[in-house]
Predict the structure.
Amino acid sequence: MVEALLVVGLAVAVFVGFNIGGSSTGVAFGPAVGSNSVSKFWAATLMSGFALLGGWTAGREVIKTMGGKIVPATKFTLAASVVILLFVGLALLVSNLFGVPASTSMTAVGAIAGMGVASDSIRWEVMGGIVSWWIVAPVMAFWVCAVIGRYFYPMLATRFGVDTSTGSMFERRHLGPIPVVWIAEGTSRREAISAVLVVVIGCYMAFSAGASNVANAVAPLYSISAFGDGFIVYVALGGGAIGLGAFTIARRTLDTVGNDLTDLPLLAALIVEVVSASLITFLSLIGIPASLAVSATMSIVGLGWGRATRTTTITQAAGKAVKGEGATKADGGTATEQVEADQTQKKTVGGALQADKPGESVAPIGEEQPEELAASDLFDPGTTGRVIGLWIITPSLSATASYLLFSVFPIYG
């Protein structure tokens, strides 16, 4: 009976890792795929390798945290571990069916916390620290990228921005019998360098995802020493399952993060990946099971929102708030009309306002054309709302179901 239950636990752990791969691959390589820097196949290959590396190195401490610090390891039994993993896997599957990168860490911690509350063994100080960072991290990601989008992005775009190619940036050629990757025809050197940077940082994100998320698939089994005390079997199990998900169900989340959330040129992809990967790496180093999905997607939304707000200065926004929209000026015109007239005049005198291409002048904040910086073109509010809604639903579903089941069936230790 125990052996059969262990096989079930192994299968459920693979199921969880499979769904993690489907979710995290979109977060790590969605910008690279969306900007035509890498194909979905190579995104899955790189995700598999670097997630395994992350789990084997930095991920060990996260496995320890998930496997005995939120709830004492003695509360984990084989049956309880199977149930927790099953709740995590089902919640993640719901998110992947909607094509949304799920909050894996929140879902896994929610299931463990549900058992902890039911058994009256949860360590609230540990949970409090984790939840606090869950709130702070996405807010930090949003505002850092919002500030970059509003104040620095146009200037960076004039110096480093490039237009993406309509097709693949690289192609396979042969030097005699040896196949090599080469820059495709029509791809500029600047564009190729930027594409390589996007992929490299995507690998960094995959490393961070492995460090954080391998634990979500195998920590309950580690807590009961299902396959011994060493890490190698657990990391191989979790990393391999993540790779399986990367090659299969990750295709939808790659499309969601890469194309649906925001207009993502190469420069924007680099900014999003650097901010979110750095934040997750920091949280992993201090032992917090963090959500790469939340941080990366909020970085995308923050960057798009920041760019969209360049049409209005803080002074203009404050004036509208005090006087009301379209307040009448002394000369008989409205404030809005006066701003539009000033923008038209300055555009005629000072040159183009657009700042999305290299070499073009950067218009001051408040002089950007609304039609060029429409929020709907920079991030999709509908898609964003769907993502945030499922972030709330999946861990809530996992924690609630876990609590109810363990309250009725106390199969914990």
